[in-house]
Amino acid sequence: MIRTRTISAFLAAGAATAALTLSGAATATAASTNDAPPSYSGPKIAVGAAVPASLSAKAAGCWYSGSHWWCNNRVGAAVYKPGVLEVVGRMYSNPSWFTCRSDNGGHVGGPHPNRWEWTQADNGAWGWMKDTDISSETDPLPVC
Fold first, then answer.
1. What is the pLDDT along the chain (144 residues), one digit of tens a residue?
2. Do 69 and 60 meet the contact criterion of CB atoms below 8 Å apart?
3. Inter-residue contact 85 to 66 (CB < 8 Å)
4. Of 23, 26, 103, 115, which is most buried, counting CB atoms within 10 Å of its CB?
5. Would you give the distance in Å from CA 139 to the centre of its chain?
6. pTM of the model
7. Residues 6 or more apart from 125 whose CB is under 8 A from it?
8. What is the rounded distance in angstroms from the CA atom of residue 120 to the CA atom of residue 44?
9. Who's near 30: CB < 8 A, 6+ residues apart?
10. In what order do the strands lie in the sheet with 68-71?
11. What are the CA-CA distances from residue 136 to residues 8, 85, 139 (Å)?
C-alpha cells in the first residue's frame, strides 16, 4: 500500500511538472516550417532491435522493456507527420512506447531543443512526438 501511494505521488508530480513545462509550447498559434518534425525514411517498426549492454532495463528516464522503449508522456500529446507540422494522431496512453529519437527536427524548446521521438499514435498512424511532450529523460533512446 505504501509503495502504491509513493508511485502514485511520483507520477502525479511528474505529470504536473510536464504540464508546467508544456504550457508555454501549447500557446503558440503559428508554426513555421522550422518547427516541423524531421523527415523519416527508416523502418516503420523496429522490433527486436539490440539494446546496448551498457544500458540497463530501467534507464534514468525512459526504459527498455518488451522490445520497445517506454517513456512517460503527456496524455493527448500530438503525433506529427514526418517532415511537416501536421497532426496524424494522438497519444492517450501513458507511459507510451517509442522506437528512436532524432535531434534534427524543428525547434521544440526544453533541454533538447530539436529532439523528436518516433512512435505509433493510438490510432495506428506513425509519426513524431515532440520531446517536450515527454516527461522522462529521452537520452537512453537510440538515434533513428
1. 333 333 333 333 343 333 333 333 333 333 444 555 555 444 443 333 333 434 334 335 899 999 999 999 999 999 999 988 899 999 999 999 999 999 998 999 889 999 999 999 999 999 999 999 999 999 999 999
2. no
3. no
4. 115
5. 11
6. 0.61
7. 79, 88, 89
8. 9
9. none
10. 63-65, 68-71, 96-98
11. 16, 23, 9
Report long-range pairs for 11-14 (Cβ below 8 Å, ≥24 apart).
11/72, 14/72, 14/135
Tell me the C-alpha distance between 5 and 81, whole Å.
Answer: 38
Judge contact between 119 and 98, C-beta under 8 A. Answer: yes
What type of residue sits at position 88?
A: V
- The three grid cell numbers given for residue 126, joined into one nine-digit string: 506513425
C-alpha grid cell for residue 120?
505509433
N-terminal to C-terminal alpha carbon distance within the chain: 40
Query: Do residues 100 and 117 make contact, with C-beta atoms less than 8 angstroms apart?
Result: yes
Grid coordinates given for 100:
528512436
**Cβ proximity of 117 and 128 under 8 Å:** yes
How confident is the model at residue 61, as a pLDDT?
Answer: 87
